[in-house]
Amino acid sequence: MSALRQEMLKKWLVGLTGFDFNLETLQAASSDASFRRYFRVEAADGQKTYVVMDAPPEKEDVRPFVQVADLLRRGGSNAPEVLAENSEEGFLLLQDFGNTTMLQGLNAQPEAKDAFYMQALHDLVHLQSSTSTAGLPVYGADKLLQEMNLFDEWYVGRHFGAEMTDQERNWLDSIKGMLIQSALAEPQVFVHRDYHSRNLMLISEPDAAPQFGILDFQDAVKGPLSYDLVSILRDAYIEWPETQTLDWTVRYWEAARKAGLPICEDPGEFYRQFDFMGLQRHLKILGIFARLNYRDGKAQYLNDLPMVLRYVRLVAGRYIAFKPLLLLLDRLENKAVKVGYTF
Question: What pTM value is reported for the model?
Answer without folding.
Answer: 0.93
